[in-house]
Amino acid sequence: MLTVRRALQIGGLAKAHCVAGEKGLDRVIKYVDIMEVPDAAGWIRPNEILITCAYSIKDDPTAQVDLVRSLSRCNASALALKPCRFLGPMPQAMIDAADEEGLPLIEIPAGLSYIEITHPLLSEILNDQVQELQYEADVHRKMTRLVLDQKGLESVASTLSGILGTGVYIMDDGFQVLAKSFAGGRADDPSSHADQSVTALARSIVTRAPDQGFLEKNGVVSGRGISCSPISSGANRLGYVVMDMVRKDPLTPLETRAIEQATIASGLEMAKINAIRETQARLRSDFFARVLSGQEEAQAVTMAKILGINMECLFSVVVASIDGAQDPQAKEQYQRLAAAAREECRSRGFQGNALEFHGSVVAICGESAEKADWNAVSVARAIGGVVVDGDRRTISIGVSGSHKGVSSLVPAYAQARKALDLGRIIYGRGRVSLYRELSPYLLLDNVSKQTLSDYWRVQMGPLIRGNPKLLETLRVFLECGGEIKKASKRLYVHRNTLDYRLERIGDLLGSNVRDPEVQFRLRLALVAGVFAGESGAGVD
Predict the structure, then answer these.
(1) Is residue 333 domain-resident?
(2) Helix axis angle, 253-292 relative to 409-426, nearest 10°?
(3) What is the C-alpha separation between 378 and 368, in angstroms, rounded?
(4) Is 372 helix (H, G, I), strand (E, B) or coil?
(5) Spatial separation of the C-alpha atoms in residues 376 and 316, rounded to whole Å
(6) Cβ atoms 353, 317 nearer than 8 A
(7) Structure confidence by residue, pLDDT tens digits, 254-292
(8) Domain check: are 369 and 454 in the same one?
(9) Measured between alpha carbons, how far is 62 from 75 in angstroms, rounded to an integer?
């Protein structure tokens, strides 16, 4: 990399000397130009050294100073001036301005021709560019070979770490560490960060926290001791290459190019990994759909092993349904719910899968733990947090108890489905209902359908016969725990209208529906109606 300091040792400039602006001697030179027009500064590019004899501004001291300041604002490298011909001694005002701006002001001797300066500088610049291209090609070849030889992300991280002399992490788009290496830097360096700290810093820098003090240069975002380079495929963000900068000096242009090549190699590897994951997820989803439909019973254990599904650990099933979703957009919304479930399992390290099944999302999740259903609750909450239809619709969710073995998948699904249906009746829509917490109502599951149907008709008889609006009003009122304000909002009616309807219901049933004991009896009747398969008992 050619700097002004180095240029003063090359060709004709070795005979010149810097008279001002010495603090800018490390400015980089990428271009050389000669100009004798009054508005020379308007043509200057960054990293350019301007050579002139100042003929056009020889009688204008203000323009002479403006030239220095304009070049500094344009990020020029230096001003090489031959003053003897038209200016005489170097103007003191230009010297003062150059010192103030930190722009090297170089005095060219009288007998030195411009070509003695330009030719050696251009040769040096071209040599540097050739070396940079060769370096980039070497790094590209090395990184490409790692991908072609299927060495994995660990090898990419190790290679880049060796080049930079610092720790390197490769993270996915959720800032989970996929690979790391300290080949060029020590993990025990007191200035390095712990893995968790690097993850937190990377997240805050990428999201550009206001107090981060980040700096973005050549696509690399830096701040607070780390640097991040995004890994993208088209418009999709795949992840990040993160450098734990234990060294103090900034990245050089060559090192930035090495990071770019490592980013490309990581992107290729991650795209391949994602394609494999998507294929595996699709095959597993198809397998679970067949098992839940009763089409895979004989070969379920064998197929689970082939697909790498461990059903011998504890697992729970989550069933989620968008309340009232029947329009064509529902499929896309269910896809979002399934994606949220998979992401929650992945981010927390759970074993799990999620699929769309019979107008709902089914998630199978768990790990080798005593209470797999608590993992399922975490997944259920992640699903429930998805905004659907502009937040105008709620999501009801049921969670099964803990199970083990492929043969338990169907019973676990039935538990989650029942928890969902009962939860809607007992707690209302938009809630997470756990099967094990519904045990008082599940006692009715052992009662004959005829007995349940009789109880339903005795308790709700007057409303069943020709009063569907009042039956729906009672059901919503009970779902809302007897809260008038909440129920009237759910029904989209004024509270006076709801009061009137409740009076009507009370008269027909011969009971005070505001009495907690009566509410429990009626809620039990609704559950009995669901178990008996009576129309009007469940939630549409």
Answers:
(1) yes
(2) 90
(3) 16
(4) helix
(5) 6
(6) no
(7) 888 888 888 888 988 888 888 887 887 788 888 888 888
(8) no
(9) 20
